[in-house]
Design brief:
With 472 residues, the chain is mainly α. The chain has a single domain, classed as MFS general substrate transporter like domains (Growth Hormone, Chain: A, Up-down Bundle), CATH 1.20.1250.20. The protein is built from 18 helices and no strands.
């Protein structure tokens, strides 16, 4: 094993640049795809939500396959980098297609087009992002360094989010002006710009981390006994702490993305914010997250475990969101609710992946195989499935609350519905994730205990199953 205890700031920054592409691609999709389909293409909200749900269900196959092969590939470019290098250009191209509504398509052909392009988007995003996220746990073996790496990743993700939220709105407006008011065609140019930037950020990341992966060379006996795909899938689901993380992951992302998808509807239709105010609000949101992302890793200690900090963060954010059932949703109120969401998002992206890296490391005791890519692929699938379900539910909610994009004014019933989307609905979803976190059985002390057992096993010393069975 080639070990590296300390990474340079340049390497961490380079890794974080990849998160800019991740944040931009992911949030450009979730902030604008349904909005683009309902308000510009003219597709029914329920159909629009179902398009995304269908693509992510199909993605259930590709996620574990990417994780499986990225665990086993042998390449001079590195296990994870080789996937990223092959996938970032097709990903950029598909983002362009995702926001292109071709005039010769209509009706069923139009819906089929967006189903196919959405499916391709998730395939190439998976091919780049699962190896990228797994790589974050393979640049160092130290917990402090992994938390630091993830803090750069979190900051990068929300720089990408800032461009997706504030930048895309302003960019679409400028393109529409240049195209004599053709709003739909303006989105095509937005997709092109976003696709190029996403591809470029992943390319920069692959250059920055070249040769930095920790590589583990298995013995000839281990290589002979490598398990197949289905056995790998079964193996990761025998780890109980992993199942708890998946439950938390689903409900937390359900709440996060329900609110994220609805932001533009709330900002424009309920609060009546201008493009400039929306851009400022998102910039403040990202500023909160960038600052918090550098604070959160420092909170972890022997007395303050990641699990407890994460559960506390979710509870506080859910309570803050619920408050907005009772007070006016004004511009200043939006800034406060954005802060509550910043608390959730920073904890989610900083602590969740750090917990996942630990699971992959110590689960070797039970699975007898290094399955980091598989653990990440299962997590990422549940993450995306929760998001897709959230978008599907959001489409149903819009339909239930009688949202009409063409209406000059919205009814009180519709406005009350948008208010619920900004407050108690996502807050309740977040709270549903807390019990899964409380069941999680890998606090820092037990992780250290399992690492010591694993080290003994790697030295060939006898290890009893009782030393890890009750935990894993």
């Amino acid at each position: 094993m080639t070990q590296r205890t300390t990474l340079s700031i340049g390497t961490k920054l380079g890794y974080g640049v990849g998160s800019i592409g991740e944040g931009l691609a992911y949030n450009a999709f979730y902030l604008y795809f349904i909005y683009f389909l309902t308000d510009y293409v003219g597709i029914d909200p329920v159909v629009a939500g179902s398009i995304s749900l269908f693509a992510v269900i199909w993605d259930a196959v590709t996620d574990p396959l990417i994780g499986y092969f990225s665990d086993r590939i042998q390449s001079p470019n590195g296990k994870r980098r080789s996937f990223m290098l092959k996938g970032f250009i097709p990903l950029g191209a598909v983002i362009f297609l995702l926001f292109s509504d071709w005039e010769f398509l209509s009706g069923g052909m139009q819906i089929a087009y967006f189903v196919i392009v959405n499916t391709l988007f998730w395939f190439f995003f998976t091919a780049v992002d699962i190896p990228y996220m797994t790589l974050g746990g393979e640049l160092s073996e130290r917990e402090e360094e992994r938390l630091s790496i993830r803090s750069f990743g979190t900051a990068g993700y929300y720089i990408g989010f800032l461009f997706a939220s504030s930048g895309v709105v302003l960019l679409q407006e400028k393109f529409a002006e240049a195209l004599n008011g053709n709003q739909t065609r303006a989105w095509t140019y937005v997709g092109l710009v976003v696709g190029v930037i996403v591809a470029l950020t992943y390319f920069i990341c692959t250059c920055a981390v070249k040769g930095k992966e920790i590589t583990v060379e298995g013995s000839e006996e281990e290589k002979k006994n490598e398990i197949g795909f289905l056995d790998s899938v079964k193996a990761i689901f025998t780890i109980k702490p992993y199942l708890h993380i998946l439950g938390y992951d689903f409900f937390c992302n359900l709440g996060i993305m329900f609110w994220t998808t609805g932001q533009l509807y709330i900002f424009e239709s309920y609060v009546g914010m201008s493009s400039g105010e929306i851009a400022f609000a998102f910039a403040a949101y990202v500023a909160f997250i960038v600052v918090l992302s550098q604070i959160y890793p420092r909170l972890v200690s022997d007395k303050h475990d990641k699990k407890v900090l994460l559960a506390l963060t979710l509870t506080i954010a859910a309570v803050l969101q619920a408050v907005y059932i009772f007070i006016p949703l004004t511009f200043s109120g939006i800034i406060v609710i954005l802060f509550s969401n910043a608390l959730t998002m920073t904890g989610f992206y900083t602590y969740s992946y750090a917990l996942l890296f630990e699971i992959g490391e110590v689960a070797v005791l039970k699975t007898k195989h290094k399955l980091d890519g598989m653990f990440m692929s299962g997590y990422q699938f549940v993450y995306k499935f929760g998001t897709a379900v959230s978008m599907w539910l959001f489409g149903i909610a819009l339909d239930y609350f009688q949202y009409d994009a063409a209406a000059e004014t919205l009814s009180e019933f519709t406005l009350d519905g948008l208010r619920a989307i900004a407050s108690w609905m996502p807050g309740l979803m977040l709270l549903c994730g807390v019990p899964f976190l409380l069941m999680y059985k890998l606090p820092k002390g037990k992780v250290d205990q399992l690492k010591a057992v694993l080290e003994r096993a790697q030295k060939g010393e006898p290890v009893s199953e009782d030393e890890y069975k009750g935990i894993l």
